[in-house]
UniProtKB/TrEMBL annotation:
Protein name from the UniProt record: DUF202 domain-containing protein
Transmembrane segments: 20-42, 62-81, 102-124
Places the protein is found: Cell membrane
Superkingdom in the source lineage: Bacteria
PANTHER family: DUF202 DOMAIN-CONTAINING PROTEIN, FGR18P
Membrane topology: Multi-pass membrane protein
Residue ranges occupied by any DUF202 domain in the UniProt entry: 9-87
InterPro entries: DUF202 (IPR003807), IM_YidH-like (IPR052053)
Species lineage: Bacteria, Pseudomonadati, Pseudomonadota, Gammaproteobacteria, Aeromonadales
GO CC, one annotated term: plasma membrane
Keywords, in A-Z order: Cell membrane, Membrane, Transmembrane, Transmembrane helix
Pfam families listed in its UniProt record: DUF202 (PF02656)
Length: 127
């Protein structure tokens, strides 16, 4: 089956790739949040077992979690930049009619900024 000069499958493959990177970035952000708060869970668990206030260091899990959140946010932003560069190179005939090149990129940047905001919150809310 010959492929014509204008093949919409190329565009849809690029969209699927962006969505896959968004899912990956959001998963890394969620993992980072869980890791960041895991130290607090262990501290509460120890306090329940010992019936006395536990002195536990949660800074390592908090630091690792914040790194995961930043990594996930950067993953989303870099994927958005790459997607925009690729979509900009496609001929107009490969794009669906009335397609906005900026919507997916703006949404991705917004998610990246929210992820960075979450990293800032986690950093400032550490005991």
């Amino acid at each position: 089956m010959p492929i014509s000069e204008s093949d919409p499958r190329v565009f849809f493959a690029a969209e699927r790739t962006l969505l896959a990177w968004l899912r990956t970035g959001l998963t890394i952000i969620a993992l980072g949040f869980v890791v960041s708060r895991f130290g607090l869970f262990i501290q509460l668990f120890e306090a329940q077992l010992q019936s006395i206030p536990a002195v536990s260091h949660t800074s390592l899990s908090a630091f690792m979690g914040i790194l995961f959140v930043i990594t996930g946010s950067l993953t989303i932003v870099i994927a958005a930049v790459q997607h925009y560069r690729y979509i900009s190179q496609l001929p107009q005939t490969d794009l669906p009619p009335r397609y906005s090149k900026s919507f997916a990129v703006l949404l991705s940047f917004m998610l990246g900024i929210l992820g960075m905001g979450l990293a800032g919150y986690l950093l400032l809310s550490q005991p």
